[in-house]
Amino acid sequence: MALSARGGNRGPAAAADNRRALLRAARRLFADKGYNVPLSAIAREAGVGQAVLYRHFPRRLDLAFAVFEENFAELESLAARTGPDAFERFFERLVELMVESVGFIEMVVGARGVVEDYDGDERLAQLLAVPLGRSQEAGRVAARVTVDDVGLALRMIYGVAATARGGAGRRADVERVRDLVLTRWRA
């Protein structure tokens, strides 16, 4: 009898690696195929069975929010950076994440009414305030620009991203709007 080349079941020891693989696969496939990509495709790309996926993420929404949390962690790190261009760098990365995750944004907007304790809007506003204040103090962003203005601009950019045709066209349109907004906000 031939031995299987497949490794043994590592059980709980593999849980953290499996979770990371699922999040990586979900991020890529949600961005590439949209929020409604089959969960079986995510599990397959992650190299795990669907039972493992459901053990970590019982609902599609749980998986999407976990990926979204990774985005927040990256933004928290960016918000903590100092320098006069802190806001511009933060805003540019936030817009990049929006383009990469148009499907996620749709999901989060839709989930606002479903997930009672969703606090993403407040968290984002708090994150924006720090680098915005730094760039305003450095004279790079006009003092008249508020966190609410930034939120409105992000919603406008999302509208452009969600309605654009194709990946390259979407990116070009979003960059154009981002540049228009940043130019208008300069001190």
From TrEMBL:
Protein name: Helix-turn-helix transcriptional regulator
DNA-binding region of this protein: 38-57
Keywords: DNA-binding, Transcription, Transcription regulation
Domain called HTH tetR-type: residue spans: 16-75
This protein's record includes keyword rRNA processing: no
Pfam families on file: TetR_N
